[in-house]
Amino acid sequence: MKTKTLTFTLALLCLSSAIRAAEQPNFILMMADDLGYAGLSCFGNRHGIQTPNLDAMAKNGLKFTDFHSNGTVCSPTRAALMTGRYQQRTGVTGVITAASHRNAGLAHKETTIADLLKANGYRTAIFGKWHLGYPATFNPIHQGFDEYVGFVSGNVCNQSHIDQAMQEDWWKQDQLTPEKGYQTTLIGNHTVDFIERSKDAPFFVYVAFGAPHYPIQGPNDPPTRGPDKVSQNSIDAKRAYREMIESMDAEVGRIRAKVEELGLAEKTVFFFCSDNGHSMGLGGEYSADPALRGSKATVYEGGVRVPGIAYWPGTIAPAVTEEVGMTMDLLPTFASLAAVPAKTEYPLDGIDLAPLMLHGTPLPKRPLFWSFKNTGAARLGPWKYVLTGNTGALYNLDDDRAESIDRSADFPEKFQEMQQRYADWFKDASTNPSGPQIDPNASATPVK
Fold first, then answer.
1. Looking at the structure, do residues 422 and 292 belong to the same domain, yes or no?
2. Which run of H or of E encompasses 393?
3. Looking at 14, 42, 68, 74, which residue is catalytic?
4. For the chain, what is the radius of gyration of the CA atoms?
5. Over the chain, what is the mean pLDDT?
């Protein structure tokens, strides 16, 4: 009798798990690298860059016109993406560089978005750029991902896969495993293969493109690092930069096509964004929005306002939103859409965007913050406080998207309020990070 009861109980548990798996959507999170706000044709590119696949997702999904990266550079944004928390709380306040931070990485005590979904029945994978730790101990497979193929540094040659410290940097799991091919195409290949193999279970795949980060190389350009290298200056930057973005868009189309071929379109959530704004020089200006001030490594809008697209056929209605989202919001959002508790080692800073995505519900009013080196910023509604060194300024983004008119003298009380908000946040977020500071000088100390 006990055996029959146990068998029946196990059968119910298996049935419950199967029903839950059938209801849980898949997640495909795609992040570009150094793509400015106007890097896609659907976000107003002025340099002939054509992105029909991402344009179609924006047209048929939710297009964010006020989405922001957590960081002004690569590693901090990726730390926030993984943890749902301000990167200052993790210690990843600066770039984990190949030269200076070869032994550093995201603390293992952090609960990543992959940890969370894997614990709730998801198959998890990342293909492409990690940039949260060079040693094998910090490899993505030790941070919640079942599978990894890609590079761990800030940038690699798109052809030779050699990093800026002239080291081989192409991994399968936590082992260096060279693979021939153009970086963007390889990322697409592995993503499509993973989706094919994971079609019968809920999956989460993080597609971390290296495009259009330096080195600037199109699919047919030679390597710029390694024994057969050519000078970056010998490559037409405008042409190659365009090809990098258009190749990324082509892989997005190939990934979507595989999802549709497998009949998974209506149970798969796509989200696309960039890790920060455009870089300066070597083609970066071709994804810049000239109406926005600043670029990568600045807290002005040009450094942190990025394209954002949420796409879920049959569930997310086509719309454009001016609601303010941020990279750290994706962990609680995916947890909500998967109907799993967002239980992490530490409290989250990000919020659930699902009500906005599914029903158009306005997001709660909240302050947002940025800090990098000697600059910082606080945003609440249209008001944005910017700190540079010991000098603060106040901008109203509704009237002045270019952040060109300092309104601190006109609204002294609002200026003081925003200044204090930044100071309070900085003190709180910088206290007892979960890991060692990647760069002790990577956050602006508030003016006292």
1. no
2. strand 391-396
3. 74
4. 22
5. 93
| Distance, CA of 282 to CA of 235 (rounded, Å) | 10
Q: Where are the beta strands (DSSP E) in 138-285?
A: 147-151, 171-172, 175-176, 203-208, 268-274
Question: What is d(CA 313, CA 230) in angstroms, rounded to the nearest whole number?
Answer: 44
Tell me: do 353 and 385 sit in the same domain: no
Annotated catalytic, 157?
Answer: no
How confident is the model over 60-106, as pLDDT tens digits?
A: 999 999 999 999 999 999 999 999 999 999 999 999 987 778 888 99
- Same domain? For 204 and 157 the reply is yes
The label of the residue with tokens 């952040």 reads 403
Is 414 found in the same domain as 318?
no
How many CA atoms does the CB half-sphere of 320 hold within 13 Å?
A: 7
Q: Are residues 256 and 153 in the same domain?
A: yes
CATH of residue 136:
3.40.720.10
- Which stretches does DSSP call E strand in 144-197? 147-151, 171-172, 175-176
Q: Is 273 annotated as catalytic?
A: no
Residues 98 and 46 in one domain: yes
Dist CA 52 CA 260 (whole Å): 17
| Torsion angles phi and psi, residue 193, rounded to 5 | -65, -45
- pLDDT over threshold 70, residue 436: yes
What does DSSP assign to residue 132?
Answer: S
For residue 401, the model assigns a pLDDT of 97
Condensed to tens digits (0 to 9), the pLDDT of residues 297-356 reads: 999 999 999 999 999 999 999 999 999 999 999 999 999 999 999 988 899 999 999 999
Q: Across residues 142-162, what is the average pLDDT? A: 97
Pick the catalytic residue from 68, 101, 131, 190.
Answer: 131
